[in-house]
Amino acid sequence: MKDIVNLLRYGWRLRRVWMFTASARTSARFARTIIGGFWLGISNLFSIAVLAIVYGTVFRVSDFRSYVVYLGLGLVIWNSMAAAITSAPSLLEQNAVHIKNSNLNPIFYALEEWAFQLQTFFQSFLLVVACLGFFQPSLLLHALTSMWLPLLNLLVFLFWAPLIVCLLGTRFRDLYQLIPIALQLIFLLSPILYKKESLGALAWAADFNPMYRVLSPLRHSLLQGQVPWGQVVVMALLNVVGVVFGCWLLNKERRNLPFLV
Fold first, then answer.
1. Would you list the DSSP string of 81-134?
2. From 30's CA, which of 131, 233, 245, 248 has a CA 20 to 30 Å away?
3. Dihedral angle at the C-alpha atoms of 82, 26, 162, 48, nearest 10 degrees?
4. What own/partner pairs with CB < 8 Å and gap ≥ 24 does 164-168 have?
5. Global pTM value
6. What is the 8-class DSSP label of residue 190?
7. Nearest Cα to 8, choosing from 234, 238, 248?
8. What tens digit of pLDDT does each residue of 2-33 get?
């Protein structure tokens, strides 16, 4: 446990460095564009509009305004989690030169990627919530009063889940092919485009879906203005276990990483 605490302290001491490099990546990503990071939110808004029209018609929803907000929140949260996990298997391989030629602890690259994904998430999430507020004005009030603990769970999940995936990806290259397939199947089984009740006998699948367990409390708190404390506490405990396991695995694999990437 001491090694894990020391690893987290090491990452915290370098926070200004990995936050700066992540911000530089974000700036380079939108170099020579007029509206910059707003493109992330706009692309999500286009996806939400198209999917809401299509699936709202297919499912014959009675309250289209509520359905747009429900779908929109679920989609923008899901996209952030999926993007972070999809990019994870190749994370250490992309930094192979630095891992082989410097003594910098690999936790730095995980934290830099985490900061980059958080910046991407907030650039999209804030614009989407602001626009969905036109359909449900109470959404903005709920965002100020009720979403903070579920949001914190999401942010922590975005650190440890990609960390574990990237470490496993150095040993098992099959993850490069498996992750996109698994995410697509999980998305289809997650009540994002539809209500959980629509799953019928398969509703249990959502309860054992860790990505949905992160998404659902945040969406619920934004829609209802109430924090589902049971789900939030369970997810917080899972986050603690995930962070500890991810850091333990990193310490265990550190010596082998130069030979694996």
1. HHHHHHHSTTHHHHTHHHHHH----THHHHHHHHHHHHHHHHHHHHHHHHHHTT
2. 131
3. -10
4. 164/242, 164/245, 164/246, 164/249, 165/85, 165/88, 165/89, 166/88, 166/89, 166/90, 166/91, 166/92, 166/110, 167/92, 167/246, 167/249, 167/250, 167/253, 168/89
5. 0.93
6. S
7. 248
8. 889 999 999 999 999 999 999 999 888 888 88
125 CB neighbour count, 10 Å cutoff: 23
pLDDT digits (tens, 9 = 90+) for 143-187: 999 999 999 999 999 999 999 999 998 888 888 889 999 999 899
Q: What is the pLDDT of residue 225?
A: 92
Tokens of 234: 């369970």
Q: What is the mean predicted confidence (pLDDT) over 111-116?
A: 96
Q: Which of 214, 211, 196, 209 is nearest to 150 (CA)?
A: 214
Amino acid identity, residue 243?
V
Cα separations in angstroms, 122 against 3, 79, 94, 147, 205: 32, 12, 24, 14, 29
